[in-house]
Amino acid sequence: MLDSYRRILAVPGAPAFSTAALLARLPISMLGLGLVLLVQEQTGSYAKAGAISAASVIANAIGAPVQGRLTDRFGQHRVLPATSALFGLGLALGLLAVHAQAPTPLPHLCAALAGFALPQAGSMVRARWTHNAEPSMIPTAFALEAVLDEVVFIVGPVVVTFLATLINPYVGLAVAGVAGVAGSLLLAVQRRTEPPSRRRRDDPSGGRERLPFGLLAPLMLAGVGFGVLFGGAELVTVAVAEDQGHKELSGVLLAIWAAGSLIAGLLVGARPPRMSSLAQLRIATVVLTVSFVPLLLTSALPLVAVALFVSGFAIAPSMVACTRLVEQGVPRERLTEGIAWFTTGLATGVAPGAALSGWVVDSTAPSWGYLVCLLAGFLAVGGAWSVRVRPPAPAAGAPADAAGTAR
Fold it and tell me: Buried b / exposed e across 277-293, counting CB within 10 Å, b at 16+?
């Protein structure tokens, strides 16, 4: 089972760039929550805390494809130092603005700058895998990164909450800033494994291949559905646990959900499915959607835990399939931007998902908030089943590779 992982980690430079990217993307799971904890502590207002956090999320959704395009054009070693510096500056100014109780919209603008410039290490590390690993290793490499994404979303919220509540609310965000900047710079200096940029002397036009938005648009739609589902499920799970008198178990329930995804990611990486990436995406999104039906019918925490664990099993395969489809369908010299467009859809859905679920929870029973997640799942299913993939042209005398074709 572990042989697949031994092979990809034996790729020269892979452990170093994967570790640096893991550190660089810790702020993804720490920035929004850290801002909520800090602003609520300083102002007593959840509304203001949510607005400032939402500013960073929306700006990140806008900044991701911009960074992706710049990275493909000029190279990671040029873009990462600049974006990490802007990220650190925006975060530092945001901390000062909140501490000084600066009037609106100054804290929001600072949070937006931090979100916009948050280094897109996830798409960059996947571009490195595509450049350095053999094609047969890519599914395992993407599965590994999906597992590390789950590690980020398990560790990050715990760390920022612990630091903010037990030490100081400023410390959690400071650690997020240091992790993002340090990880980005460590990734930037690893020039040997960096994919070549489009700005070459032998390519003065910069390689202006068009992005296949016929592929990317449905994947972005699916990404929005995933984002709404993720944002909603986190909020509703906390509300359900609190309604049952065990709010302290909400973190355990969410960790169980993430653990299901982590285990599924490890299994997918160890034994990549024989089906096409498109078939994997379609099946996984259906399973993910259907898994929320039992959550509408019960508030018993043991049953909620089981349902979330099953639901988690569909997350990593969905994410791996999406990034694999982008890798197969986007020109390699624009791969970072292509992956960033999908993550933009994902990020776009998180804040509305939390808001809509919160409204349903306040208006009805807490468990009915999962209805938003169910409907978001149908949106993701619609996106997945709208994807059309052109069969790759086979080499002379060789059969077509079914990995990227629709079945």
Answer: bbbbbbbbbbbbbebbe
Q: Tokens 């029973």 label which residue?
A: 365
203: Cα separation from own chain's centroid:
32
Cis peptide bond prior to 212, omega within 30° of 0: no
Q: Is residue 404 within 8 Å of 389, Cβ to Cβ?
A: yes
Helices H, strands E: what count in the chain?
A: 17, 0
Amino acid at 242: E
Q: Contact 380/372 with Cβ under 8 angstroms?
A: no
Q: Please give the pLDDT value at position 407.
A: 30
Alpha helix segments (H runs only) across 271-314: 277-290, 293-297, 301-312
In sequence order, what DSSP letters do the residues of 158-213 get, joined into one string? HHHHHHHHHT-HHHHHHHHHHHHHHHHHHHHT--TTSPPPS-BTTBTT---PPP-H
Most confident of 98-102, 177-181, 295-299: 177-181
**Hey, what are 89's tokens?**
């500056």
Q: Do the Cβ atoms of 11 and 132 come closer than 8 Å?
A: yes
Contact 268, 363 (CB under 8 A): no
- Going by C-alpha positions, the residue among 167, 191, 242, 182 that lies closest to residue 75 is 191
**pLDDT tens-place string over residues 351-382:** 788 778 888 888 888 899 899 999 999 999 99
**Amino acid type, 300:** A
In eight-state DSSP terms, residue 203 is B
Instruction: Give residue 391's pLDDT band: very low, low, confident or very high (50, 70, 90).
Output: low
Instruction: Give the per-residue pLDDT at 399.
Output: 36
Coil, helix or strand for 189? coil
What residues contact residue 16 under an 8 Å CB cut-off, 6+ apart? Answer: 186, 190, 193
- Residues 68-108 pLDDT 10s: 989 999 999 999 999 999 999 999 999 999 999 898 899 99
Identity of the residue numbered 125? V
pLDDT tens-digit readout, 124-163: 999 999 999 998 898 889 888 888 887 887 788 778 878 8
Q: How far apart are CA 235 and CA 254, in angstroms?
A: 10
Backbone angles phi, psi at 280, to 5 degrees: -60, -45
Residue 357: phi, psi to the nearest 5?
-65, -40
Alpha helices in 192-276 (DSSP H): 213-243, 250-270
Cβ count near 387 (within 10 Å): 23
pLDDT at 318 over 90: yes
Positive/negative CA dihedral, 356, 34, 147, 12 = positive
